[in-house]
Structures are given as C-alpha cells and as structure tokens.
Design brief:
This protein has 732 residues and is an alpha/beta fold. It is 31% helix and 23% strand. It contains 22 helices and 30 strands. The structure holds adenosine-5'-diphosphate (ADP) and zinc ion (2 copies). Adenosine-5'-diphosphate (ADP) binds next to helix 9.
Length: 732
C-alpha cells in the first residue's frame, strides 16, 4: 500500500500539498503535527504534516519526495491541528499560513525544540543581608540590589532589561563585590504565592464559587465588573485554583494591558511557574515560553493575542481580560479573533472560559443575553472606593488656545494643589495633526495616502500615521513660499508643551508610543507615577486601560466627540468603552475621583447613561440601534478587500468577485459594494471593498466556501492584493 504525506505549506494558497515520504519511513510514518522540509518550486520550505493518506490526485510523475522530517514529537497535538484546520476554514485563510502563525518564529525557521538554560541573577548570602542604603552613592547599584532583594528567586535578564537600561556593567560591579551571582537554569520564574491583602467581597466570592463549581467541563462566563471592582482578584483566585488542581491556566490580555504592574501582581500572588508571551520578547524567549507550555513546566501562560495558540499540556481554563479590546483581533494576514477562539478552544478542550471586562463588547453582551454565556457581575468598586463623578464640559464657543478650556485648567490646578495627580487623555500622538499654509491653504498631505501628515514637533518632522513615511517640516510653504505655516489641532506633544507652560511647578509626563519607544522607558514613567507625587500625565490609549494609579483624582478626556458622529458603526461603542475605561483610572483608592469630558455635544443622549456609569443601559441603547439597522451582532459580516497601485483594478476585481458570489448565492446573502475604502489611497495603493452580510453565520460560510475558490482562480485575483476578513472590526 502506497502512502502520501499531506502537508500544510506556508504559502498563500488555499490548499494542502501531497508528497512522497522518504523511503525509510514508508512503513512507519511520523505523527501528524511534525515539521517536514519539502521542495517547493525551486525553494525548500518547512511545512507541517496534516495526515498520511492512501490516495492522491497528484500525477505519479509529478509528485516529489519530502527532504526530511524534523521532529520526533509533533508540534501540534490533534486538538490543536483540528482547531487550526477549523480556523483555516472559518476565516477562509490558507492552512499553511494559519499553522505557521501559530508557531514561534524560531520553530518556523526549523529550530530544535530543546529547552535552553537561561541566565538568572540572584543574591549571594552577603548580598541578601546588605542594606541597600549603604549604596546610596551608587544609586544604580542600589536600584538593582533593591530589585533583587524584592524578588524571591532572582531576576531573568529579560526582566532586568525591562526595568534598567544598560544594567550589565552595574551588575558586574555587584558581582565583583560578591553580592550577586549568575545561575543558568532552564526553569521559569516561580511566582511568590503571597496571599491577598484583603477579604474578598460577596460579589467576588460568588463569582469565584460559580466558576469553581463548573471547572471540570466546558462553561462560558462573562464577568462584567466595573473598573476597580476587583476582577483581577477574581482571576488570580481562579488561576490559583487551576494550578492547585494540577492544570494550566491561559490568560489573554490586550497588547497594551500587559503592563509591568500587572505582571508584578501576577508574579507576587500566584504560587506557580509563569510563562509570558508578548511582542516585547525576542525570538529565543518566545520559543522557550512556548516549550515550557508544551512540556508542562509552565502553570500559567499570560500572553497577548497569539498566545491563544499555546500548546497546553494540561489545559485547565482560559481567561480573556478586557475582552472588548480590539487588539484581540489580528488585523492583517490571518485575521482571527483570539477572544472568539478562546471560547471555541475552551469548548473543544472541555474547560471553562471567562471573558472579563468593565465594558463588554456588544457581541459578548448579546451572547450573554442569548444564554450562551453565564453572567457574573461585580457591581461595586472593591475596597470601598467610590465611582468618580463624570462631568461634561461644554466647550462650544470657548477659547481654547491650547486645546484645554479655562474650566479644565482651573480644575487641574485645584487637584494638583491638593497633592493629587491628574491624567489627561487624548487619542492623538504627535504635535499637531495638520500643517496648513495661512496664505494659500496648502495642506501637508502624505504623498502615499489620503491623509494628513502629523507634525511631530520634537523631531520637527512630518509623519504619516498610516504608512509611516516621514519628511522634514518645510520652513516655507512648498506651494507659495509663504513663511506662515499654521499648526492646526492638538496632539499629545502640544498639550504637553502647554501644560509645561501653565504648570511650571509640576512635572508633566507624556506617555504615548513615541515617548515609550525605548525599552524600559514605560516602566520608568510608571515608577515615577507610583511615587504618588503630584504631577500631570498626558497620554493616549496606553494610559486608558488596566493601570492602577493610586493618587490620580482627576481624569479628563480632551475630546470625546470623534466617536459620536463617525462613518464607522462601532465608533460610539468604542467611545463609551474608552470613556468609562479612562474614567476608571480616577479615584481608585480613598480619594474621590472626578472625570471631565470636553465636548461640543453635551446634550448627546449617549452621554446620559455613561455619566450614570450605567454601561448596561448604554449598551442596550446601542444594541437596539444595531438591531434596527441590522448590524452585528444581529447579522454577520465579511469584508472582501482589494488594493492595487492601479486605481481601477481593485474595483474591477471586486465587481468580478461580486458576480461570482452572486452565482452561488442561494440564501439571499446581501452583497454591498464594491465601494472605495474610507481612506481610498494608503501607502501608495488604491483600496476598495465589498461588504457581505448574512442573518445566519452558516449562510455566510456556505457562500464564501463556494465562492472563494472561484474568486481565487479568477484572472484578476493575481493582479490585486485581496483578502477576506470574517467578523471584521475595522471597517476602514
Ligand atoms: P479590576 O481588575 O476590576 O480593575 P482590581 O482587581 O485591580 O480591579 O482591584 C482594584 C483595587 O481594589 C486593587 O487595588 C485591589 O487590590 C483592590 N481590591 C480588590 N478586591 C478587593 C477587596 N475585596 N477588598 C479590598 N480591596 C480590594
Ligand atoms: Zn502657501
Ligand atoms: Zn501615508
């Protein structure tokens, strides 16, 4: 009997490939999930064995033998292989790319699956009893020593690099004095297992009890707890329960939610070994974390989106924190939703899954209403902190030379003088979003996008936030040579400048992607905030979520209007979520918090429930709207996108795609478009899209399943870049 290897190869083709096994493995084929090196055209690629089959459609004289089998033990077990093949079908994405996406880069490149020893620095016996104060004159040595003394088992090099710039020479000095030593081990950091500082309140206890009672099989929960209600506390106890039952817990957090602060909290509270997977790791560290997960030497895996593909050896439960966060959806290539996959995977693994948020997505709320998720509620702030008052500042016809109204400036001053911190939120980095000529009206536009270039003052450059292109800021208008160029609008840099002028006696910290680019800089700023000294924080999204700043009493949203009238039907949902998340940073401990929202639409009806901290009522209004307008979660969407250098091609391709879709459309699935994308030109390419909407998920899937092979084979498909986005979140 002849056998063939059916292999997933990382190429953008929606099919599997058959090969001949190497002669020595004819009788004893490897298990599905191993890596196999194969010839592909003129290259050699690494694919994954999907199955061994007895028949193939490839002609005898065309089938080629594989080059070598790379693994003894499969990288994917059958659960994972099944999940990934399901993903490939559901998201209509090439199976080879889906599988590739689920592997650490090193493994894609063929690295061996052996755990390596990693260096950890720990104190010697003399180092342990040393008074850090005695190093007062060598402050960097003192800082390192203090950190090491606070850790129970020493610190890994990556942890040190996160917190201290250029720590190696300093460490060397400590080593010369015989206060520290380096040990090489292949173990993960062990959490310290400290107990909670407080008794859990009844709502927390009830939530924990409900989940624990159903922890031996599939069960799905939505944990809806207002900001500061102690959700993280609930996670910690459930994770510990999972560890104590000998199982692994997988915790997904948003990209920017993976703050050092949150990590420190997990490390100090959990009694177990913790693997961390996020984009800040290097390839080797990622590989090690993956291996620890697979070998079972990690009890807890905390990671961003792609951690959903962690190879769990003893799966116990999955938690998705801030489940409404957009970063759980991959926006390019294999466009999966890690949140949705968490529920799917928990079902496959027969374990519980918990989706937590103060502001759950409408999708999740709807699922809960439909009885698909059990609802757990934490309706009050833990530890007695009260919710901040949310006040709207009507800025219509107000003079705002710095983007800050006089009322706001006055309130900032009051809070600072009371010894508190103030946090200002503005979702726009850079100095000014538009540069315009006062003489002729010329605008600085990106040469490659339909978008303005943002002025970045500190490097005096113009930067496009959509394609990254940059140029020096002109000193004269390029069109009429007038010198009078107006900087219009406000970004975080400009607000920072204004604050420095207005409040010369208080430090101003700006936290955005630009100011935190250097490794360790975010941590340094967070440390600075945690000193509690009165100061002003100005930042973007990065400041909005997850942080616990004890001494922030005033939070202001500088511009809330963008979300009220937008072409994107999800904009108002996001505005509300953001407003409550930002508000959630105020008054988290004893001091009462205040929130100010600058708006030109103080009478907008959506503000009412938000001011009352009534997210459920806010969401009900939006859900009714979505139902009336037949939008998700009441219908299901897919977005077919196309782009090309040539202006006409994307539209032409999508017209053809529409015809093909219509030919196999037996359920009256709605086809809308093609339309030009909201930003028609981006990075030098013209973009268009076709929206596909169905009342039943199954109908959408059937249609796409039948049409995509036809679209793929159409001659125009090779002339454009096209993609399909299932359950799209970004409609731009
Ligand atoms: P969330 O994750 O919902 O924002 P956290 O778990 O971070 O809330 O809790 C907010 C704050 O309240 C933290 O400082 C936490 O230590 C504290 N806290 C949590 N649960 C309790 C409790 N039962 N009693 C007192 N304080 C608590
Ligand atoms: Zn001009
Ligand atoms: Zn651009």
């Amino acid at each position: 009997m002849k056998r063939y290897f059916r292999i997933a190869i990382p190429v953008p083709l929606r099919r599997e490939f058959d090969y001949l096994p190497p002669p020595d493995l004819q009788g004893n084929p490897p298990l599905p999930g191993v890596r196999i090196r194969v010839p592909f055209g003129r290259q050699t690629l690494i694919g994954i064995l999907l199955e061994v089959v007895e028949e193939t459609e490839v002609a005898k004289n065309r089938i080629r033998p594989v080059i070598e089998v790379l693994d003894q033990q499969p990288l994917f077990d059958s659960e994972m292989l099944q999940l990934l093949r399901w993903c490939s079908q559901y998201y209509h994405h090439p199976v080879g790319e889906v599988l590739q996406n689920a592997l650490p880069v090193r493994l894609r490149q063929g690295a061996a699956t052996t755990l390596k020893a990693i260096t950890r620095w720990q104190l010697t016996d003399t180092g342990k009893v040393l008074e850090p104060e005695s190093l007062k004159r060598a402050s960097r040595q003192m800082a390192l020593l203090t950190d090491l003394q606070q850790s129970r088992h020493g610190l890994f090099e990556s942890e040190l690099s996160d917190k201290h710039i250029n720590w190696r020479p300093v460490m060397k000095r400590l080593q010369e004095k015989d206060w520290v030593r380096a040990v090489k081990e292949n173990a993960l950091p062990q959490g310290q297992g400290k107990s909670a500082d407080h008794e859990l309140n009844p709502a927390q206890q009830a939530a924990i009890k409900t989940v624990k009672a159903q922890s031996t099989g599939f069960a799905s929960f939505m944990l809806e707890g207002i900001t500061g209600s102690g959700k993280t506390e609930v996670y910690l106890q459930l994770i510990q329960h999972c560890i104590d039952s000998g199982k692994q817990a997988l915790v997904l957090v948003p990209e920017i939610g993976l703050t050092p602060q949150l990590m420190a909290r997990f490390q100090s509270r959990l009694d177990g070994r913790i693997a961390i997977m996020h984009s800040g790791l290097n390839d080797e560290e990622r590989l090690q974390a993956w291996l620890h997960t697979r070998e079972g030497s990690a009890d807890v895996i905390i990671g961003t989106r792609s951690a959903i593909f962690s190879p769990l050896l003893r799966p116990g439960m999955i938690i998705v924190d801030e489940e409404h966060d957009l970063s759980f959806k991959q926006q390019e290539g294999f466009r999966y939703s890690a949140r949705d996959l968490a529920v799917k995977r928990a079902r496959d693994l027969n374990i519980p899954v918990l989706l937590g948020s103060a502001t759950p997505s409408l999708e999740t709320l709807y699922n809960a209403q439909q009885g698909r998720y059990q609802v757990l509620r934490l309706p009050e702030r833990a530890g007695g902190a009260s919710l901040p008052e949310i006040e709207l500042l009507d800025v219509r016809s107000q003079k705002m030379p710095h983007g800050l109204s006089a009322r706001l400036l006055q309130r900032i001053r009051e809070h600072l003088e009371n010894g508190s911190q103030v946090l200002l939120f503005l979702n726009r980095r850079g100095y000014a979003p538009v540069l315009m000529c006062h003489e002729c009206g010329w605008h600085a536009l990106c040469p490659r996008c339909d978008a303005h270039m943002t002025l970045h003052h500190h490097n005096t450059r113009l930067q496009c936030h959509h394609c990254g292109s940059e140029q020096p800021t002109p000193s004269l208008c390029p069109k009429c040579e007038a010198p009078d160029l107006l900087q219009m609008g406000f970004g975080t840099e400009r607000i920072e400048e204004a604050l420095n002028e207005q409040f010369a006696n208080y430090p101003v910290l700006r936290i955005d992607r630009d100011s935190t680019r250097r490794k360790g800089s975010l941590q340094r700023m967070l440390n600075e905030i945690n000193t509690g000294k009165p100061q002003i924080l100005i930042g973007t999204q990065m400041l909005a979520k997850g942080h616990h700043f004890a001494n922030v009493t005033l939070v202001a949203m500088l511009n809330a209007d963008h979300g009220l009238y937008s072409a994107d039907f999800r904009a108002s949902e996001r505005m509300g979520q953001l407003l409550l998340q930002v508000a959630g940073r105020a008054g988290r401990e004893e001091k009462k918090g205040h929130v100010l929202v600058q708006t030109h639409h103080p009478d907008h009806p959506l503000f009412k429930p938000l001011q009352a901290h009534d997210y459920p009522a806010f969401a009900r209004t939006l859900l009714e709207e979505r139902q009336q307008t037949e939008l998700p979660p009441f219908t299901h969407l897919a977005l077919l996108r196309a782009e090309a250098i040539d202006d006409a091609l994307p539209g032409q391709f999508l017209e053809q795609a529409r015809t093909l879709l219509q030919q196999v459309n037996h359920h009256d699935v709605l086809l809308m478009g093609p339309f030009p994308a909201l930003m028609e030109r981006r990075a030098g390419r013209s973009r268009a899209q076709l929206l596909i909407q169905a009342t039943q998920r199954g109908q959408l899937q059937t249609l796409l399943g039948a049409a995509i092979p036809l679209i793929e084979n159409h001659k125009l498909s090779s002339k454009v870049r096209w993609s399909i986005d299932i359950d799209p979140l970004d409609m731009m």
